[in-house]
Every structure is written in C-alpha cells, then in structure tokens.
Amino acid sequence: MESGPAIFTGTAFVLFGAALLLWTAARLRLRAPVAHGVSPVASAALSVLFGLAALGGGIWCLGYA
Fold first, then answer.
1. N or C, which end of the chain is more exposed by having fewer CB within 10 Å?
2. Which residues, 6+ apart, have CB-to-CB distance to 13 below 8 Å?
3. What pTM did the predictor assign?
4. What pLDDT score does 64 carry?
5. Alpha carbon separation from 47 to 4, 14, 51 (Å, rounded)
6. CB distance 14 to 52 below 8 Å
7. Directed axis angle between helix 3-29 and helix 40-63, to 10°?
8. Alpha carbon distance 64, 28 (integer Å)
9. How far apart are CA 25 and CA 9, in angstroms?
10. Where in the sequence is the domain holding 42, given as residue range(s)?
11. pLDDT (tens digit, 9 = 90+) per residue, 3-55?
C-alpha cells in the first residue's frame, strides 16, 4: 500500500536530480552562468550538490518501495 507513493516520489526525485545535473553540466560546458547575480563557483557547486541530493533521495525512496 505504501509502495505506490514511494515509487512516485522516488521517480520524481530521480528525474529532477538527473535533469538538474545534466542542465548544470550543459551550462558549465558552454561557460554560461548557472545562476545570474551569484558567484559562478558557488552556483555551480550548489546546483551539483542539490542535484546529487535529489538523485540520492530518489534512489533511497526507490530502494524502500
């Protein structure tokens, strides 16, 4: 009964984390700013950190589904 919401949540987190990491990699490869008005190093680091956290959280949710 609880596996349905866990699968949905895990899938949403995995998709968001993967998309955020791919988007950040594309912006860094093009040497474009990840976020405007913020330090380039800080914005790239935080974007990668949150992307990995979302990806890890999604994998964790799917592991308990």
1. N
2. 54, 55, 57, 58, 61
3. 0.90
4. 81
5. 29, 15, 6
6. no
7. 150
8. 34
9. 24
10. 3-63
11. 999 999 999 999 999 999 999 999 999 999 999 999 999 999 999 999 999 99
